[in-house]
Amino acid sequence: MLILELRVALVGVLAFATPNVMGCGPFFPEELIPTRKEALFEPPPALFVKEIQKMIDAPLKDLPVEEVDNPQAQRAQIEAEQTADGIATKISVMRQATDGDAAYVLGQGLPEALRLYTAAARDFHLAFPPPNEKGQADSESTKLPDNQIDTLVMKARQRFAAVLALPAEQNASRIVWAAYMLGRIAVYQDNTAEAEAQFQKTRELVKSGLPDPLGLAVASLGEEAGMHLRHGEVKQATRLYREQMAYGSASAVNSLKQVAQTISKDSALLDQALSDPLTQRLLIVYQYTQNVGTPFSSLQNYLDKSPKEGADTEPTLDVWERIAASIEKQGIEHVAGIDWLAALAYQRGSFQLAQRLVKKDKSPLSYWIKAKLALRAGNQTAALAAYAQAAKGFPRIDKSNPAANEDNLIYRIDAERGVLRLARGEYQKSLGYLYSTASNYWTDAAYVAERVLTVGELQSFVDRLVPAPSKKEMEATTYYKSIPALRMRLLLARRLMRDRRFKDALRYFDDVKLKSLAEHYHSAFDRANNRKQGRLGRAEAWFAAALLVRINGMELLGYELAPDFANRGGTYDNAGGPDKVEGEFTTADERRRFNASRAKPDERFHYRVVAADYAAKAADLLPRHSQAFAAVLCQAASWNLNDHPEYAKPLYKRYVREGAYFLWAEDFGKECPEPDFASLTQPS
Question: Is there a smaller number of Cβ atoms within 10 Å at the N or the C end of the chain?
Answer without folding.
Answer: C
